[in-house]
Design brief:
Length: 217
């Protein structure tokens, strides 16, 4: 990623644009199946969670209902519209936490926006006591691939298949617990009027809109 592309990404995330709040029904339907996927393997209650690239709090908000949760993001604007309390401005490439600080370290829709996603995953592993969870758009889904082509800021998605995400985890020294593609709900694009229809098909599939990797140290 060139310097100009990095600067463009920074400007993009500091730009004030209308986004759905974490409490919105579409956001709830987008987030909860992914949290359930994780909690099917480990009870999250009583855990400590770090949400890396937390943005305006889609996952931070729901994780914090279950466990002690800290969110970190480099965008001051995105943090300003995140409703959660435990928020830090900082870089995913140099997480300001001691080694083994959290039971679970999570990121969603972050890695395709950063220079050197491998370095981010290594940092996530460092501050995790046990679990690292990575979730990214699935480039093998035709609609997600088209969106990546059309939107300049999202073109990093074009290499993020499930296999690529698994390779990132393994090359960072993590062990794969489970991995899949799932989902049919896009948080800021799915119409509320069609939500109930999309919820019925929001399940695991090779063409799921998102890939998720659950890994451990």
């Amino acid at each position: 990623m060139t310097k100009n592309k990095i600067e463009h990404q920074i400007r993009y995330w500091e730009e004030e644009r209308k986004r759905r709040s974490p409490e919105h029904p579409v956001i709830e339907a987008f987030v909860l199946p992914k949290i359930k996927y994780i909690s099917d393997y480990e009870d999250l209650s009583g855990m400590s969670i770090l949400d890396v690239g937390c943005g305006n709090g889609y996952f931070t908000y729901y994780f914090s209902k279950l466990a002690y949760t800290v969110g970190i993001d480099y965008s001051r604007y995105m943090l300003s519209i995140n409703p959660c309390d435990l928020l830090i401005q900082g870089s995913a490439l140099a997480l300001p936490f001691k080694t083994d600080s959290f039971n679970l370290v999570f990121c969603s829709n972050l890695l395709h926006h950063v220079k050197g996603p491998e370095a981010v995953v290594v940092e996530m592993k460092r501050v995790s006591k046990k679990y690292v969870v990575l979730s990214e758009p699935n480039r093998n889904n035709p609609l997600m691939a088209l969106f990546s082509v059309l939107v300049r800021e999202e073109r990093g998605q074009l290499k993020f298949s499930l296999q690529y995400l698994k390779k990132l985890a393994i090359s960072s020294g993590l062990n794969i617990v489970d991995a899949c593609s799932l989902g049919s709900i896009v948080p800021n694009k799915t119409p509320l009027s069609l939500l109930e229809i999309f919820k019925k098909i929001d399940k695991k599939s090779v063409l799921g809109f998102y890939s998720i990797v659950l890994a451990c140290k």
